[in-house]
């Protein structure tokens, strides 16, 4: 049976003028965005907002409600936005008495396939316009300015921060990019052809870039053939000699007769961690329908976490996107299970 196409071709006389991006093959991740904007008031209007003396009632309370509603209604007035199941929207108003302005911050969060930055920005606009509406009777000469996205997290881009800078209190709450700082890492690539020089080892080079970018000390790296005895010996030597925190093995995880990495790891591990392989297979189904053919797995050799990735650079990148956000925390938890040095 031929698999169904993700996108169907339409034999029509006129191409569409625009299209909604297909996010069907994107993997849901925890997304978060924070946006902000400022409204400048006259002293009279500012103090009326602060003291709650405006005739229409509590301005800031209604602005918070409007910000939440604006974020939730984003796809209704921005045509290309996807409808997202928002997990949370929060609105925060900061009154600045020095220049009679109010900064509005909106945070939007969702477990979704695409980001929530438009929801955060829409929430800011709705909150600011509500403040304008409730204060224009005192002073119609108002100014809304500097609406911008401060941060967004999740997805392939990881953590993005506004290059113009963000408040220090917000920066302190963001995850660090160097989440493997102080950790020793090893890379072992299993490939008959790469080890013989028939083609360049791209997966190992990619893994090295990934691990170094996360702050890890890559102190072991080798490319060997798909032979069980060689794999077992090099894995054990790497883990014990270098006292690695993590070893990533790339290649030999398929259903073929030369794909022996999972068999070797099961034999030499002190304990097998099946859940890591199950998690990577489940999440990989967002990328490829036959992810269940892979025998990705993981185990412990002494205090070293060993994870077996597929061999292609694309699969390596995708697997790292799946487990990368949790690896730093996982290694810290492993250390607390009796492996403290």
Automatic annotation (TrEMBL):
* Pathway(s) of this molecule: Cofactor biosynthesis; molybdopterin biosynthesis
Pfam families noted in UniProt: MoaC, MoCF_biosynth
A GO MF label: cyclic pyranopterin monophosphate synthase activity
* Coiled coil feature spans: none
User: Which InterPro entries does the record associate with it?
Assistant: MoaB/Mog-like_dom_sf, MoaB/Mog_dom, MoaC, MoaC_bact/euk, MoaC_MogA, MoaC_sf, Mopterin_CF_biosynth-C_dom, MPT_Adenylyltrnsfr/MoaC-Rel
Query: What is the top-level taxon of the source organism?
Result: Bacteria
Q: Where is the MoaB/Mog domain?
A: 186-330
What's its EC? 4.6.1.17
Catalytic activity entry: (8S)-3',8-cyclo-7,8-dihydroguanosine 5'-triphosphate = cyclic pyranopterin phosphate + diphosphate
* SMART domains (UniProt xref): MoCF_biosynth
Q: Which UniProt keywords apply?
A: Lyase, Molybdenum cofactor biosynthesis
Q: Which Gene Ontology BP annotations are present?
A: Mo-molybdopterin cofactor biosynthetic process
* PANTHER family named in the record: MOLYBDENUM COFACTOR BIOSYNTHESIS, MOLYBDOPTERIN MOLYBDOTRANSFERASE
Q: What does this protein do?
A: Catalyzes the conversion of (8S)-3',8-cyclo-7,8-dihydroguanosine 5'-triphosphate to cyclic pyranopterin monophosphate (cPMP).
Record's protein name: cyclic pyranopterin monophosphate synthase
Q: Which organism is it from?
A: Micavibrio aeruginosavorus EPB
- Supply the source organism's classification: Bacteria, Pseudomonadati, Bdellovibrionota, Bdellovibrionia, Bdellovibrionales
């Amino acid at each position: 049976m031929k698999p169904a196409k993700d996108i169907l071709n339409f034999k029509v006389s006129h191409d569409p003028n625009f299209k909604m991006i297909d996010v069907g093959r994107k993997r849901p991740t925890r997304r978060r965005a924070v946006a902000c904007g400022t409204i400048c008031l006259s002293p009279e209007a500012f103090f009326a907002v602060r003291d709650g003396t405006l005739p229409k009632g509590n301005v800031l309370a209604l602005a918070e409600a409007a910000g939440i509603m604006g974020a939730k209604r984003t796809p209704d007035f921005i045509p290309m936005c996807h409808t997202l199941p928002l997990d949370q929207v929060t609105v925060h108003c900061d009154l600045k008495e020095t220049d009679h302005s109010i900064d509005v911050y909106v945070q939007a969060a969702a477990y979704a396939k695409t980001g929530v930055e438009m929801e955060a920005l829409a929430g800011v606009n709705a909150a600011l316009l509500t403040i304008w509406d409730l204060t224009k009777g005192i002073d119609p000469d108002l100014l809304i300015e500097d609406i911008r996205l401060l941060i967004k997290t999740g997805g392939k881009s990881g953590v993005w921060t506004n290059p113009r800078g963000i408040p220090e209190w917000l920066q302190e709450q963001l995850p660090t990019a160097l989440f493997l700082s102080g950790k020793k890492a090893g890379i072992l690539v299993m490939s008959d052809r790469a080890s013989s020089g028939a083609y360049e080892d791209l997966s190992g080079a990619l893994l090295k870039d990934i691990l170094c970018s996360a702050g890890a000390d890559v102190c072991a790296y080798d490319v060997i053939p798909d032979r069980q005895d060689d794999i077992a010996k090099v894995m054990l030597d790497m883990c014990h000699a270098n006292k690695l925190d993590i070893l990533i093995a790339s290649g030999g995880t398929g259903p073929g007769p030369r794909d022996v990495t999972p068999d070797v790891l099961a034999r030499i591990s002190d304990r097998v961690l099946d859940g890591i392989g199950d998690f990577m297979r489940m999440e990989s189904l967002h990328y490829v329908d036959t992810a269940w053919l892979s025998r990705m797995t993981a185990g412990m050799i002494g205090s070293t976490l060993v994870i077996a990735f597929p061999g292609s650079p694309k699969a390596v990148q995708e697997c790292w996107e799946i487990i990368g956000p949790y690896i730093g925390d996982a290694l810290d938890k492993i250390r607390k299970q009796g492996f403290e040095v």
